[in-house]
Each structure stands twice: as C-alpha cells, then as structure tokens.
Design a protein that fits this description.
Low-confidence stretches: none
Order of helices and strands: HEHEHHEEH
Strand order of the largest sheet: 1-2
C-alpha cells in the first residue's frame, strides 16, 4: 500500500493519520529522512511511534537500490505517481570523486519514490 497526501495539508493531521494506520499494523517505529527531522521525530513520538533518521540520504538510497531494479528483482505496485517519480529521477555526477547525486528534477517530486526505495533498502540491507 502506498498512501500519499497532496499539498497543501496540515502536517500534524497527516502524522496523526499515518500513526493510526501504523498502529493498525502494530508498527511502533518508522525510519525517515532528515527533512524537518526534529519536528517529525517529535510529532511521531507524541503519538506513540518512534522515528529514526535513515543512515543514508535519499541520493545514496536511490543508488543502493538501483541494482534491484536493473536486475528485475523488484515488482512495483501499480501506482502511477510512484512509477512517474521513479522514471523522473536524474543522476548527476559530482566533482571531487564524490558519488553521483540522484534526485528529482526542478518542480518535480520524489516523496513516493523516496518512501518506496527507502523501504526496499531497509528490507534488502537488514538495516534498522
């Protein structure tokens, strides 16, 4: 299941909604990116759900999960937004020997791709 909420929205209401869903599935902890992490961690904690920041940033997660897609070890759910976001990701070389950056193009989004690839990475790496 992939659930997403389009902006504009009230973040605290969205967190409450997702916490109810998580509790229905007996999930007590989530892993997320560092975007507004202190606010996110507190909002989830106040509703009884732990929030941990991911070890990897989203660019690294995209790079780590690419082989699973390339080797066809992943079957995606039929979600138009997810598929579009994954297709629109762009890989850009960085200077100084740093790993390539992978991100969405300007005026595009990657929330669904970020969530799906993060879950894939956690499941395949045994992390967290």
């Amino acid at each position: 299941m992939l659930d997403h909420v389009r902006a504009p929205h009230e973040p605290s209401v969205v967190v409450e909604r997702f916490c109810r869903i998580l509790k229905d599935y007996h999930i007590s902890k989530v892993v997320g990116d560092r975007y507004a992490a202190e606010w996110c961690a507190g909002a989830f904690k106040n509703l009884g759900i732990g929030y941990e920041s991911s070890e990897l940033d989203k660019s690294s997660i995209y790079s780590e999960t690419l082989p699973a897609f390339s080797e066809r070890r992943v079957t995606l759910i039929d979600d138009k937004r997810l598929i579009t976001e994954l297709r629109m990701l762009e890989r850009k070389p960085r200077s100084g020997g740093k790993a390539d950056a992978v991100d969405h193009a300007p005026n595009m989004h990657d929330d669904a791709a970020n969530a799906a690839c993060g879950a894939l990475w956690l499941a395949s790496s045994g992390s967290q």
